[in-house]
Write a structure and sequence with these properties.
This protein is about 35% helix and about 10% strand. It has a six-stranded parallel β-sheet with strand order 1-6-5-2-3-4, with helices on both faces.
């Protein structure tokens, strides 16, 4: 991929940046909690759904981890807003379950919500797409009552975490109709997935006309995932990426779930190549982790021999219901855009400049004391 993309090392997200969505007491807790002091925070751990008996354990470096992946998503959004790139990728991001004051499903800080809030400073409408096997509940909940963000999630529904994402969950108040949920069941194949994704995407782009897109590419919807139950190949999963890119809208591409690690690596390497319009050979080149890809050492996956529990009738019902929902919307909502708020990088630069000015002013005042000037004591 050399020469086709630029890599950057974004700064970690600050507490102030993360508090654009999350509560300050929750962020303060994450900053202080370590594996050594958990007993001190017993009540808070229960309040924030963090700890040994949850799906969000505390581990050394937790807060720094959240700062790094969140900072990368924010940086991608800033670069898109400035026009520095047309696609920004952060495979470490995409933690879609985190709530305002609560961790959930291995997600602590919701970098997606924060990135969308950054994009909304410039774009009147942002589309969020989620192809993780789990419903993108944290993102949907954050924007459930606004028409400026449309969420489109395709996920396993029914006796499956997080238990949300019914087809009739369509939003509330000004956001009614702007939450789009495709509840599916086990065994989804490439062809079946495409027959939902593409027509619904076409209609979304027609009626919503987003200025920017955030695409969460959770790899647990792939065949062979330890927690997932879909049967998608890399090509089927990546076709959603390719199709989204074809609309030529500024896009932030994020990671997400994935619990068969070698397949997660396969997936995001391949989807990076799709975003760069670059062919990759099926043979995986020798590397330090080569043995992980035994026995075939191939990039692409073969679907499992299993039944697709999504029938033709059930898929058609989902497709028709979603298209009907979208056709009922009265065109893309307009927004009175006032002066664009500064992005966090500019705020940091201004703060640093102000510190320098203050320091210089204090030095001057110190140098001028008792020099016989008009302000000196006689």
């Amino acid at each position: 991929f050399s020469g086709k993309m630029k890599s950057s090392r974004p700064p970690p997200a600050s507490p102030n940046e993360m508090s654009a969505f999350h509560s300050e007491d929750y962020i303060n807790f994450l900053a202080k909690a370590t594996g050594d002091n958990l007993r001190v925070y017993g009540n808070q751990m229960q309040k924030f759904n963090v700890g040994e008996y949850t799906d969000c354990p505390v581990f050394d470096g937790l807060y720094e981890f959240t700062q790094l992946y969140t900072g990368a998503s924010l940086d991608g959004a800033v670069k898109l807003n400035r026009g520095d790139c047309d696609v920004a990728i952060n495979w470490s991001g995409g933690l879609h379950h985190a709530k305002k004051s609560e961790a959930s499903g291995f997600c602590y800080i919701n970098d997606i919500v924060l990135a969308i809030l950054e994009l909304l400073k410039v774009h009147a409408r942002v589309l969020y797409i989620d192809i993780d096997v789990h419903h993108g509940d944290g993102v949907e909940e954050a924007f459930y009552c606004t028409d400026r963000v449309m969420t489109f999630s395709l996920h396993k529904y029914g006796d499956f975490f997080p238990g949300t994402g019914h087809i009739k969950d369509t939003g509330a108040k000004e956001g009614t109709g702007f939450s789009v949920n495709a509840p599916l069941t086990s065994g989804m194949t490439d062809d079946a997935y495409e027959r939902i994704f593409k027509p619904v995407m076409d209609k979304i782009m027609e009626v919503f006309r987003p200025g920017a897109i955030v695409l969460q590419c959770g790899a647990d919807s792939l065949t062979g995932d330890r927690l997932g139950c879909f049967n998608l190949t890399l090509k089927g999963h990546a076709e959603c990426v390719r199709y989204t890119k074809s609309f030529n809208v500024p896009t932030l591409v994020l990671g997400g779930g994935g619990y068969t690690i070698r397949n997660v690596a396969r997936c995001w390497a391949y989807e990076t190549s799709v975003l760069l319009d670059t062919e990759l050979p099926d043979e995986i080149p020798y590397n330090d982790y080569f043995e992980y890809y035994a026995p075939d050492y191939k990039l692409h996956l073969t679907p499992e021999q299993r039944e697709n529990m999504n029938t033709e009738a059930s898929l058609e019902s989902v497709r028709v219901d979603l298209l009907t929902q979208l056709m009922s919307l009265k065109g893309a909502p307009s927004v009175q855009m006032s002066e664009v708020p500064p992005d966090f990088e500019l705020i940091k630069e201004d703060a640093n400049a102000e510190k320098e000015r203050r320091s210089t002013r204090e030095n001057r005042e110190g140098d001028g004391m008792n020099d016989g000037g008009a302000g000196d004591d006689r």
